[in-house]
Amino acid sequence: MAAAKKAVLGPLVGAVDQGTSSTRFLVFNSKTAELLSHHQVEIKQEFPREGWVEQDPKEILQSVYECIEKTCEKLGELNIDISNIKAIGVSNQRETTVVWDKLTGEPLYNAVAAPVSPGPSDPGAVFPSGSSIPAAGTSSVWLDLRTQSTVENLSKRIPGNNNFVKSKTGLPLSTYFSAVKLRWLLDNVRKVQKAVEEDRALFGTIDSWLIWSLTGGANGGVHCTDVTNASRTMLFNIHSLEWDKELCEFFEIPMKVLPNVRSSSEIYGLMCLGDQSAALVGQMCFQDGQAKNTYGTGCFLLCNTGRKCVFSEHGLLTTVAYKLGRDKPVYYALEGSVAIAGAVIRWLRDNLGIIKSSEEIEKLAKEVGTSYGCYFVPAFSGLYAPYWEPSARGIICGLTQFTNKCHIAFAALEAVCFQTREILDAMNRDCGIPLSHLQVDGGMTNNKILMQLQADILYIPVVKPSMPETTALGAAMAAGAAEGVGVWSLEPEDLSAVTMERFEPQINAEESEIRYSTWKKAVMKSVGWVTTQSSESGDPSIFCSLPLGFFIVSSMVMLIGARYISGIP
């Protein structure tokens, strides 16, 4: 019997979406933006000490290989010719820090996370089909808090009237960004120190690690990043679009370990685009004032500010949105980041055992339809935008004897929405023109109760595309549009119309404001729970507390004295 004829669908574009909790590979039809097939693999997070979050760079890389292989198998089963894949984009977690040995390709330490960002909701890369898909490094995950004392020491060196770090990078000095993670590695990991001394070390965010590995690794791999990922390191000048010598000297980072910076859409073996920037492209937010919110491990609300840098006065970040070509202009965005969104659902599942799967949370919340006055502030890694308060920790308050797991589940979903409201309010104040609706994407948007709650709490419509994988779609669009690939047009008249689902507010404005103001009270109660010493030292010794230590020592002396006086042997 003759072999089945392969379906011809025109140029296809793939996208690797490498996030905090999973990796996915998706393949799109470049003419229709239709998702043809995909595969997803969960990846582990390691918590070696309280406040520390790490991942294995080799596991991340292997998950990419597995996803590509399995997706190609699925396309084969659908009779789709994989040779039609003309380019691949990669979207990855942005601030997670990796250091590796360029001679061996081996990690020098685990990946150190940014203080826990999106199920997948991170930066990217692309390479033309036919490129080898081969290959790790030290990685610091974006949710990690071990660098708080480093941040405090560095902040003392910044003049109060001249915050040159923020003016050059658009970022506050925080544990969130890569420079302080790299500084911690250089200060504390001998293997990293030695590799830098011997000129063997390479640094990058996850996109750099994947691009270098996928383009040959130790055998000629390309060490590069794009402007969106570089803008999250705190070493990159977002005005000159170059690594900044003054910033590198301030953080004492040798410039020789840094990757070359490219635009977000060009071929050098691979092209990359940060996850949230990819989502901005995937949501077609090409106009000044357009915004999107991605719901993943964390929440990330970006507003396109066009070609001008807008510096926030209300706790938001100024970042590079995209640069879609070597000779194309750069576009900027205001961004607000929520550390814990989907991660709170995982916490309810893995830590408390309230649910067995992430999907169950919608069922529990639906049973009660209210939190019954219970408020959940999931500040597991402190508060991000707009507070930037590392001393905060998670609290659940307003509990009564009536409160049950359904109310806590509902409060967890509300927490995601309240945090988004805080960022949207800050964005409206900075931009001066309130958003009339919010475009949303990410895995959590499949939860209809969450989307309705978001519309109620924002008191504006929430608009969700029928295909929520806009982060991967954006990476694919940038890859397909790259000069030399040219299979995906980004001209407005050529972009496919996307079917949208719309959620309108269903409560009155007064009720929305009352719930929001009560949430703000709960947030204030979460602040000031930890000090630098208690959060970073990780030393469980009771003698970390001087009064308690003194009490115990004096009690031991008294007991020994009593035994001696009483004559007890």
UniProtKB/TrEMBL annotation:
Pfam families, sorted: FGGY_C, FGGY_N
Residues covered by the Carbohydrate kinase FGGY N-terminal domain: 13-112, 141-271
EC number(s) on file: 2.7.1.30
Cellular component annotations (GO), alphabetically ordered: mitochondrial outer membrane
Coiled coil start-end: none
Record key words, sorted: ATP-binding, Cytoplasm, Glycerol metabolism, Kinase, Membrane, Mitochondrion, Mitochondrion outer membrane, Nucleotide-binding, Transferase
Molecular-function GO terms, alphabetical: ATP binding; glycerol kinase activity
Boundaries of every Carbohydrate kinase FGGY C-terminal domain copy: 292-482
Stated name of the protein: glycerol kinase
Species: Suricata suricatta
Gene: GK
